[in-house]
Amino acid sequence: MALDLGMPILVVDDYQTMVRIIRNLLKQLGFEEVDDASDGTAALARLKNRKYGLVISDWNMEPMTGYELLRHVRADEALRTTPFIMVTAESKTENVIAAKKAGVNNYIVKPFNAATLKSKIEAVCGA
Amino acid sequence: MALAAKARKTTAAPDKPSLIRELVEIADYIAHLRTEIAALRANELTRDRLPMAHEELGSVVEATAGATNSIMNAAEEILGLPDDKNYRAVVEARMNDIFEACTFQDITGQRIGKVVEALRQLETRLTRFAAAVKAKDEGGIDPAEVERRVRNELLILNGPQLKGPATAQDAIDAMFD
């Protein structure tokens, strides 16, 4: 299955430079519909208003972390099937296991490169 | 000092040697404490060194943000260039902008060095003071620290590890295969 380059993607990170980096990488991959939010609370508000094909989220944010966002998304009937990739500097095995248990589709450790992001999006969203 | 000297002179009084000796000890201790407090040079720390550390770290944050923006602007401009005869000239110009932006590292390195030195001074003086007054930490933990620890534990906030990721991307990938 080919990637749907028209699908909207939500990037959640409190560090604007990282949002800009991911946005540029996604643009290079052909994705043009990219929105962003600076924490889980802002992301949930966006998710309620638009159907996203993918969420790419950082873990460590305030007030709502990416981990909490993931659990909210998976607990919400309307959002629970939204593909979710965690992109974070939280690299302990306990973090990965907790995210996996909470229903994350894939997990990228920062710093990462374009190839890693591309392969994870392909693994999660088809191709 | 004057109190201790005065008390010492009166130690000859035979009827109250114990009380006088205790007063002398207290006076000596207070004098010692004053010396140690003076050695802390707390005014210099709060007037000069700590504000300097704040300012230097603020400048580091500003410089790194500025450099990152310059580098990203140049990269974004290169990515958006049309494939025409000016392509190479513009790429070279933007590459020079990137090199120029990277000079932030030298300056920020020096700024961080000054902050590290200030912290080292603070640590040395506090260690000496704590040893001199035989300071013991008050029992229990600061409530704000308790709250921070509980949040970190609940939300599994470990932060970046010191020497690179604790779990390699390959190992994580294996967990998702």
From TrEMBL, chain A:
<feature type="domain" description="Response regulatory">
    <location>
        <begin position="8"/>
        <end position="125"/>
    </location>
</feature>
<dbReference type="Pfam" id="PF00072">
    <property type="entry name" value="Response_reg"/>
</dbReference>
<keyword id="KW-0597">Phosphoprotein</keyword>
<feature type="modified residue" description="4-aspartylphosphate">
    <location>
        <position position="58"/>
    </location>
</feature>
<dbReference type="InterPro" id="IPR001789">
    <property type="entry name" value="Sig_transdc_resp-reg_receiver"/>
</dbReference>
<dbReference type="GO" id="GO:0000160">
    <property type="term" value="P:phosphorelay signal transduction system"/>
</dbReference>
<keyword id="KW-0614">Plasmid</keyword>
<dbReference type="InterPro" id="IPR050595">
    <property type="entry name" value="Bact_response_regulator"/>
</dbReference>
<dbReference type="InterPro" id="IPR011006">
    <property type="entry name" value="CheY-like_superfamily"/>
</dbReference>
<protein>
    <submittedName>
        <fullName>Chemotaxis protein CheY</fullName>
    </submittedName>
</protein>
